[in-house]
From TrEMBL:
<dbReference type="InterPro" id="IPR011705">
    <property type="entry name" value="BACK"/>
</dbReference>
<dbReference type="GO" id="GO:0022008">
    <property type="term" value="P:neurogenesis"/>
</dbReference>
<protein>
    <recommendedName>
        <fullName>BACK domain-containing protein</fullName>
    </recommendedName>
</protein>
<feature type="domain" description="BACK">
    <location>
        <begin position="50"/>
        <end position="127"/>
    </location>
</feature>
<dbReference type="Pfam" id="PF07707">
    <property type="entry name" value="BACK"/>
</dbReference>
<dbReference type="GO" id="GO:0000932">
    <property type="term" value="C:P-body"/>
</dbReference>
<dbReference type="GO" id="GO:0005829">
    <property type="term" value="C:cytosol"/>
</dbReference>
<dbReference type="InterPro" id="IPR011333">
    <property type="entry name" value="SKP1/BTB/POZ_sf"/>
</dbReference>
Length: 211
């Protein structure tokens, strides 16, 4: 029974991260090395990739970090679907939004998912409103890559929470006629380059079988 429990704990990467940090504090090198070997030899999958990414950054292990990023780029939607919304942290979301490629079909689909996460987080944290949570992520969302129809749908559904009326008007005008109106201070004039599902994924297609 003890062995079975130990095996489960060795496959619990959140537990291993805590164990590694404790071993580092108390200078238990044998335990540190055991945890490190487990992290480095593990395959990132949709249900462990965020924990292994944290481990890779902690260990400064570039190969593990890059393996995690590949999974996050090729299987973004699948990774997020494998998590409960309430368990996805702001740091996880920021990691996704900083990726150069995501497996969503479009920026519109990505924004819809972000808004669903913000709604979930606002229900969890009664100290912050939907708009107060969203504001930190607005600069990462490429509203200018939406069609006028897509932006109109977002605006119609969440007008009071999404942004001010002036900001919404400005975004809409710049989608319709680029450069026609001053953009909100948080909105970059050149949207972040981001590829979506089936766009430039050929080089990463070999990763599709993982997870």
């Amino acid at each position: 029974m003890y062995g079975s429990s130990s095996d489960r704990q060795l496959n619990d990467f959140s537990f291993l991260l805590k164990l590694y940090k404790a071993a580092a504090v108390y200078e238990i090198n044998e335990l540190k090395n055991l945890c490190k070997e487990k992290f480095v030899c593990s395959t990132p999958k949709k249900n462990n990739v965020f924990q292994l990414l944290d481990a890779g950054k902690l260990l400064n292990c570039e190969s593990l970090i890059q393996r995690c990023y590949k999974i996050l780029q090729v299987k973004t939607a699948e990774v997020l679907a494998a998590q409960e919304l309430c368990n996805i942290t702001p740091a996880m979301l920021k990691t996704i939004l900083e990726l150069p490629r995501v497996s969503f079909d479009s920026e519109y689909e990505l924004i819809l998912w972000v808004l669903a996460w913000v709604k979930s987080d606002s229900l969890k944290d009664s100290c912050k409103t939907f708009k107060e949570i969203l504001v930190d992520f607005l600069p990462y969302l490429n509203f200018l890559n939406l069609t006028a129809e897509e932006f109109a749908k977002l605006w119609q559904n969440r007008r009071s929470d999404l942004m001010s009326e002036q900001e919404g008007f400005s975004i809409f005008m710049n989608i319709a006629v680029p450069g026609s109106h001053p953009l909100p201070s948080w909105c970059p004039s050149t949207p972040k380059q981001r590829d979506y599902r089936d766009q430039n994924f050929d080089s990463l297609s070999s990763m599709n079988s993982i997870g």
